[in-house]
Amino acid sequence: MAEILPPVSDPDLLSQIDALAKRHREASGVVMQLIGYIGGSAEGLLGKLPAPVRNGLDGATERALMGAMGAAERSRGIVSDRPDWVNRTLTTMMGAAGGAGGLGSSLAELPFTVTMLLRAIQGIAAEHGFDPASREVRLECLRVFASAGPLTRDDGMDLSFLTARTTITGPSLRSLVAKVAPRLSAVLGQKLAAQAAPILGAAAGAAVNYSFTSYYQEIARVHFGLKRLARESGTDEGLLREELVARLQG
């Protein structure tokens, strides 16, 4: 029989959960809504991509994620973690360069942006007291990518990553990447289409990458902020996540 845990009643814990919920909601702020408006619906954006690109997105995303995991980890021994604004600036420049050359250069830019995003997420994990080199934290960083992307138009955000327990015992790194890739590929497909749109060019690429970086940094702070809260308070993490999800859905 599953253990029934009492609800969270500590006012301080509830206040901190409220702050995390507010941060999660604000992650899809004005910039992200503007980009979604410019690009159109998610279905419309994906429909703008050539069929070969659409059909190869899952595989390309899985390869980009696997490459990013290794590249981001290796870079930690060379370059120290950077403030959020530095990561946003660097990815914005990448997006501008990718968008300036249309779909071809946007595809070439994609793995570099994914690596930068993952490295930013790892840095936030470290900031919250977790070791990005550990297998468990590496998997948790991937879980952040399972959240709804900043170009998602509706409010039905994917909260599946919030319901996961602390310890990951089942899937290997590669199998988790394979599960995350289809979700992320749809989001990245929207990004590619928005960057490749006629007229918008480099400006669209810069804006899209700025919004992506801002979004995933905020989601990472929610994800690892909740894990730190559970560790420091001694409260069951699953219970805290249920409280957070309830606030996001309320």
How confident is the prediction overall: mean pLDDT? 79
For the sheet with most strands, the description reads:
none
Tally of individual helices: 11
The percent range for strand residues is: under 5%
Low-confidence stretches: 153-157, 164-170
How many domain regions?
Answer: 1
Q: How helix-rich are the residues, as a percent range?
A: over 70%
- Principal-axes shape call: globular
Structural class: mainly alpha
- Return Rg in Å: 18 Å
Instruction: Tell me the total number of β-strands.
Output: 0
- C-alpha termini separation: 29 Å
Helix-strand topology string: HHHHHHHHHHH
InterPro entries: EcsC
Organism: Thioclava dalianensis
Protein name: Protein EcsC
Characterise this structure:
The protein is an all-alpha fold. The chain has one domain. The protein is 72% helix and 0% strand. It is built from eleven helices and no strands. The chain has helices at 11-27, 30-39, 42-47, 51-55, 57-75, 84-100, 102-127, 135-144, 173-195, 201-233, 237-249. Helix 1 (11-27) packs across helix 11, helix 5 packs across helix 7 and helix 8 (135-144) runs parallel beside helix 9 (173-195). It is globular, with a radius of gyration of 18 Å. The two termini are 29 Å apart. The relative contact order is 0.20. Mean pLDDT is 79; it is low at 153-157 and 164-170.
Summarize the structure in short.
It holds the Pfam family EcsC. This protein has 250 residues and is mainly α.
